[in-house]
Design brief:
The protein is mainly α. It has a domain of 49 residues. Helix content is 59%, strand content 0%.
């Protein structure tokens, strides 16, 4: 018998963000196991070229994180 899924909505928003970050970090550790399609490679190359043309358009992760954690508090 399968265990019922936990209700993640009972967690605060910062707790849910931390959980997602933990899950993402665990995926990133095994990223080599994921296939990189030609289409995805082309999209990554396009985005990187766009960033190199205008680095100021990027938002620093610290700022994004601060804005995310600042919501709902």
């Amino acid at each position: 018998m399968a265990k019922p899924a936990p209700d993640y909505r009972k967690l605060s928003i910062p707790e849910r963000i931390a959980l997602v970050e933990d899950i993402w970090d665990s995926i990133a550790q095994d990223a080599q196991a994921l296939p990189l399609t030609d289409e995805l490679r082309a999209e990554l190359d396009r985005r990187w070229a766009e960033h190199e043309r205008d680095p100021s358009s990027a938002i620093p992760w610290d700022q994004v994180r601060k804005e995310l954690y600042g919501r709902g508090e």
